[in-house]
Structure formats: structure tokens, C-alpha cells
Structure prediction request, 65 residues.
Amino acid sequence: MSKMKTNRGAAKRFSKTGKGGYKRSQSHLNHILTKKKSKRKRQLGMTQQVAEADVKSVKRLLPYS
Prediction:
């Protein structure tokens, strides 16, 4: 049986945490930043954990992580 392929787009967006979850970055921090408050931009720069409902999908995209 052949090897499974890792989804390269997902590999660039998600990384596994020590406890087995996945972390991700947030969106809306690329352009039109002048109208966004400093607090909002600062908080968007932080990473978040992938929701439990989406972990199964991420695991399927990243079989070897």
C-alpha cells in the first residue's frame, strides 16, 4: 500500500501541540489595518487552538504529524 500524502497547505497552517491538539494562527491581519484598533491587531497576532469539532478534519489532512 502506498504512503498517504500530507496536505501541504494544511501543514503550513497547523502544527501539533504537546498534548496532541493543533494550534493555528488567526485571520484578518493582512490588510486594511488602519481601521482596526491596536488591541484587536495585537490579539489577532496570537495563536489559538483548533476547535474540537475540527480536529478530526485536521488529523486527516496531516496523517504523519
Remarks:
- The two ends are 19 Å apart (CA to CA).
